[in-house]
Amino acid sequence: MIASIEGKLLKKDNNSLLIEVKGITYRVYVTQTTMQRIDEFLNPDGTVKLITYHYLHVEPSRNIPILIGFLNEVEKEFFETFITVSGIGPKAALKALNQPISLIAYAISNADLEFLKSLPGIGAQRAKEIIAKLQDKVGKFGLVKDEVPVQKEVSKDIQEEAINILIQLQYKKQEALAMVRKAIERNPHLKTTEELLNEIYRQRIK
User: Fold this and answer.
1) Structural domains in the chain?
2) pTM metric for this prediction
3) What pLDDT is attached to residue 49?
């Protein structure tokens, strides 16, 4: 069982980090809020340490070991508490926990059904089950200091570069402008032209 991992951060993907440890590169899945805060926890040499939840994802033809990373033990404990709810496994929890733990814990304690329903993959029935199971168990998690830093707006240079690429791909300028605007509305934390174009592509194939 892998309890933690410390190494050089090589790359950030949509929902995972590539971390190199003594020549071996591990893929560590993280929640959206951890991804947004990870730069705060980088050491000057580019290394980072994450507390990990290690489990075996079972498929019909293979078993895949999965690492999920957290910034501290409290975040991991909340994750382990969250997956005690019937029907919420590690994969579903990883997707659902896209808001700071303190906000989610507060919503559970106050039976805020609408907030919980807004979490990815959590419908009305599942939200009710979360409240019934965890309402009296999450008080301390509401005290976690896990504010997500305010991100700067997507730079004009990135927007203009994406628009120019879309025009080269035979999209009209007004169409390209609309595609870029909608992508930024969906995800205002895009940092590169590649991330912006990937967001546009994901929306088009839905």
Assistant:
1) 4-70 (2.40.50.140), 73-143 (1.10.150.20), 156-204 (1.10.8)
2) 0.69
3) 97
